[in-house]
Design goal:
heterodimer, A: 2 helices, globular, B: about 180 residues, alpha/beta, Rossmann fold, about 25% helix, GTPase activity (chain B), Small_GTP-bd (chain B), cell division (chain B)
Chain lengths: ~425, ~180
């Protein structure tokens, strides 16, 4: 094994190692999730060297510099003030979802008008219209961090893979017998997973365009799906009230997480893959040990259905969005509620942390998106202007751009 | 509502839930009818650029009513909403005689759609509060409704504005929910 280069990863903090093994170029990461501006650099570098043989004595200085750079980034207080940059009359029917590439240079919008459009974030110009689906384009994704491909899942039961640069369609994945409503690339960008109202999920090979495996076992619609950070496991959340953990290479069921007493609305892994967070219409979120599949905590407090939930990038914090019009922040370690976000005048259907982890973005049926302080729960900004409810909203990786997509057929760029 | 609740309404409804598709030309009064059904304010209604969904309880049924915009440019997208439809409600502006031919054409095309085959159809002859409104019988004849053989159908005169006739139509809907020939 020979180390070729070291790269920084800001969110969550870490160092990426590119190395050669048996003539093949590989990468792995050293996660520094606990890093803070006050961490002692020399001690930390010593610890890294103890566990990582690739970091030899000759690399000490370089690693120390990288850690210091990460600390500087953590010190930079992210308090970006957003203003409306552009309104895009994006589609002739309501939007479904929006997604940004990692660089934030472009983003995509899906719509009831059966298209997905690719936009230039800096100018607001339309770059491509991805046409070909015969029904609503519902689920969309970039293959981040690469960002050169786009996957679209449609109510027409197919998924299409596109070039982000040219807008050319590489493959149409056929096989589902009902609407595709969720999808994700694996982190290596070799496979795309689709979840469907037909109660199955399927994995597709990006190169060949062939189906790899079908995940069968759910008794009702699959509406949420995500890979873990390594891409080895995948979880599916279903209207059958359960979440299933699957082995992504064999398609075998690893665990069934049983405990919620209503439909699942979201299911995802924490960054270090130790925990699984599930949100449900039963008004609670549950935390599960990802290895054993046992429930370790139930997060209560909401008065109505949980419509979305998420971890921050390091996995230390959890945010929940509810039909009761409030959102909550929980500590993932103590499982205690830290703050309650109050102010929306309608249900909150989307919530996400900025990559820095100090701000939350919520989208609501009250036609506004809001920016919140994670620690105090104070609403810092109301992003107003949409004339119908907001279906989707997202931060870019730098945390200084927000895209909102609405039922009013438009999307807005805030920066 | 949010995307998630759209998915929940999309799935094949349990027995007591009914999926109703509300279609018709632009300015026929579909959204006004929807709001009248939901007992909501109808004073500020603008052309629908997409869709509206409302759930109404009636005679033990939960009626999930999908109101889809009727402007010409979005009519090609109606078919996106056909799946799992239990009842089709077609709304006509009875006072807009110039467009009877156009509305008849659209209805004929809908009735030929495979995904809507055998789905009971209720035609609302709306805007009967206007003096110039054509009576339901005249509209039925103009649209050749009596030639429909593959499903149950009904025409009901109404005014979405005043609410007159709307409940009669919905009573017919509840009676014919299960009339979809399999």
């Amino acid at each position: 094994m020979k180390l070729k280069s070291l790269l920084l990863r800001y969110y969550p903090p870490g160092i990426m190692l590119e190395y050669e093994k048996g003539g093949e170029l590989k990468t792995k990461s050293i996660d520094l999730l606990e890093l803070s501006p006050s961490t002692d650099v020399n001690t930390l570098v010593g610890e890294i060297q103890k566990v990582e043989p690739l970091i030899t004595a000759s690399r000490t200085k370089q690693v120390r510099l990288l850690v210091q750079r990460l600390q500087e980034k953590l010190r930079q207080h992210c308090d970006h003030n957003f203003y409306l940059f552009k309104v895009l009359r994006a589609h002739i029917l309501p939007l479904t979802n929006v997604a940004l590439n990692k660089a934030g240079s472009c983003f995509i919008t899906g719509s009831y008008d059966r298209t997905c459009k690719v936009w230039d974030t800096a100018s607001g110009e339309e770059l491509h219209t991805l046409e070909g689906h015969r029904n609503v384009v519902y689920a969309i994704a970039f293959n981040n961090p690469y960002g050169d491909k786009i996957a679209t899942g449609s109510f027409d039961k197919t998924c299409k893979l596109w070039s982000a640069e040219t807008g050319k369609c590489y493959h149409t994945f056929r096989g589902h017998t009902a609407e595709i409503v969720c999808l994700s690339f694996n982190p290596q960008s070799t496979v795309v997973a689709t979840g469907s109202m037909d109660t199955t999920a399927k994995l597709w090979d990006i190169q060949s365009g062939e189906e790899v495996v079908t995940l069968t076992g759910h008794l009702a619609e699959i509406i949420s799906l995500s890979f873990d950070t390594s891409g080895d496991r995948i979880i599916t959340g279903s209207f059958d009230h359960t979440v299933v953990v699957w082995d992504a290479s064999t398609g075998r069921k690893v665990h069934t997480l049983i405990g919620h007493c209503a439909e699942i609305s979201s299911a995802l892994f924490s960054w270090d893959c130790s925990l699984i967070l599930t949100g449900s219409m039963d008004k609670t979120c549950m935390l599960w040990d990802a290895t054993s599949g046992k429930c370790v905590a139930t997060l209560t407090g909401h008065d109505d259905e949980i419509l979305d939930s998420c971890f921050d990038y390091t996995g230390k914090l959890i945010a929940t969005a509810s039909a009761d019009g409030t959102a909550r922040v929980y500590n993932a370690t103590t499982r205690k509620c830290i703050t309650k976000l109050e102010g929306h005048e309608g249900e909150i259907s989307k919530i996400s942390f900025n990559p820095q982890g100090n701000r939350l973005l919520t989208g609501s049926s009250d036609k506004t998106a809001r920016i919140w302080d994670v620690q105090t729960g104070q609403c810092l900004q109301v992003l107003e202007g949409h004339t119908d409810e907001i279906f989707s909203c997202a931060f870019n990786y730098k945390g200084n751009i927000v895209i909102t997509g609405s039922k009013d057929n438009s999307c807005r760029i805030w920066r | 509502m949010g995307l998630l609740s759209i998915l929940r309404k999309l799935k094949s409804a349990p027995d007591q839930e009914v999926r109703i598709l509300l279609l018709g030309l632009d300015n026929a009064g579909k959204t006004t009818l929807l709001k009248q059904l939901a007992s909501e304010d109808i004073s500020h209604i603008t052309p629908t650029q997409g869709f509206n969904i409302k759930s109404v309880q009636s005679q033990g049924f939960k009626l999930n009513v999908w109101d889809i915009g009727g402007q010409r440019k979005i009519r090609p997208y109606w078919r996106s909403y056909f799946e799992n439809t239990d009842i089709l409600i077609y709304v006509i502006d009875s006072a807009d005689r110039k467009r009877f031919e156009e509305t008849g054409q659209e209805l004929t095309e809908l009735l030929e759609e495979e995904k809507l085959s055998c789905v009971p159809v209720l035609v609302f002859a709306n805007k009967q509060d206007l003096l110039t409104a054509a009576p339901a019988a005249e509209i039925a004849e103009g649209l050749n409704l009596h030639t429909i053989r593959d499903r149950v159908w009904q025409i009901q005169s109404c005014s979405a504005l005043t609410g007159e006739g709307v409940q009669d139509g919905m009573n017919w809907v509840c009676k014919n929910v299960n009339a979809k020939k399999k």
